[in-house]
Amino acid sequence: MVDGPDSPGCRVYLITPPALDPVPFADRLAAALDGDDVAAVQLRLKDVDDATWRRAIDVLRPVAQSRGVAFLLNDRADLVVGTGCDGVHVGQDDMPAAAARTLLGPDLTLGVTCKGSRDLALRAGEDGADYVAFGAFYPSTTKQVTALLDPDILAWWSEMMELPCCAIGGITPENCAPLVRAGADFLAVVGCVWNHPDGPAAGVKALNSAIEAACAQ
Questions:
Q1: The whole model's pTM is what?
Q2: Contact 55, 25 (CB under 8 A)
């Protein structure tokens, strides 16, 4: 999923709701991915057992991969290789990035949450991350946010490093422009797609339209 020098600019990084029934959700995921460009899907499940993880992966991974969209797991680096996923995203309270890289091997995607820390981002790059994630930039309904970041951290990273960066936290079509202009390679979103009044396809389209408009400014 990592953008190269000839790939398009900022892209949508779609995170699933933390609780879902995989079989009916597969149709919603397919609709979202058929709506417009999506770089990756991250399966994010909270407080479920391994069997539930594996069942969700078996149902949802083919939906993404058959459309050329990377399918990543949140936290569970130990499940990636055996289930045919494309990579993992780890937070600062999860498995260390270096340990996750060891489990993944050299070729699968590793993303690392760095919150608002430049030092953590630099360390993640040294530990083998393929992208770093900064946030939150706006109030979020999925995680408690104690302090909001300035988009300047995206500009600093983009000017200093070739490693892609992902912005996360309360992002919508209405507020994403400063993040796009600051240099975010990916916008990680949940609510603005899954809660869109016209459905997830419309949510993905609206976000891509906003990204395109911001790039044109």
A1: 0.95
A2: no
